[in-house]
Fold this protein.
Amino acid sequence: MIILKSKREIDMMREAAKVTGEILNMLPEITKPGISTLDIDSFVEDRIRHYNMIPSFKGYGGFPGSACVSLNDEIVHGIPSPKRILKEGDIVSVDTGATYKGYCSDAARTYPVGEISEIAAKLIKVTKESFFEGLKYCVDGYKISDIGHAVQLHAEKNGFSVIRDYTGHGLGRDLHEDPQIPNYGKPNKGPRIRRGMVIAVEPMICQGGYETTTLPNEWTVVTEDGMLSSHYENTIAITDGEPELLTI
């Protein structure tokens, strides 16, 4: 069931999202060679708690971190660890959210670690562009599949593939609500987008094939072919007019 949010509810989600966006905008300053993925997670948690908010991810379904920190071929759900050390040429995806008065936010970015390859830089750029192509359809009256269709077209036009096994989603009091929002598919399918919806659109774009596998830790999802993956996500409120990006 899709839960439409009141103005009051969106106001609270906006507060949570503002903190999430601020943290993600700060991360380029610390994503340097030599730090661990746990260092990133600790920074994220400290900043969320600084604002007297709750890390949305910590303990969610048993996840141990406040952020999913995923390196290179890891698509999502990388578990923060003091043993995972960032090195020159890596790319690192950070997915996190803050909860304010029971309402969640969710966003992700992929960052370069030092100097990265040309193909890695292009992948990060195209992933972000794919999000903004999908954003054009986050408007009252379009259908959910219009978003994913736009994401897929842009990613594949640039020679990349789109993950099928994981999707965007609605959110509110729960981190994951209806509807699911795939990043691929034919247009004009699925539920109609309506004012009051709050959704997380999150392209996960790969250098190689879109097939995935889950590591033995039962959390971390990687590309089956071991090639790079990039992630870009924002929390979006559907309004009477243009969509509002809450996590920028």
The radius of gyration is 17 Å. The domain at 7-240 is CATH 3.90.230.10 (Creatine Amidinohydrolase). Residues 193 and 247 are 19 Å apart (CA to CA).
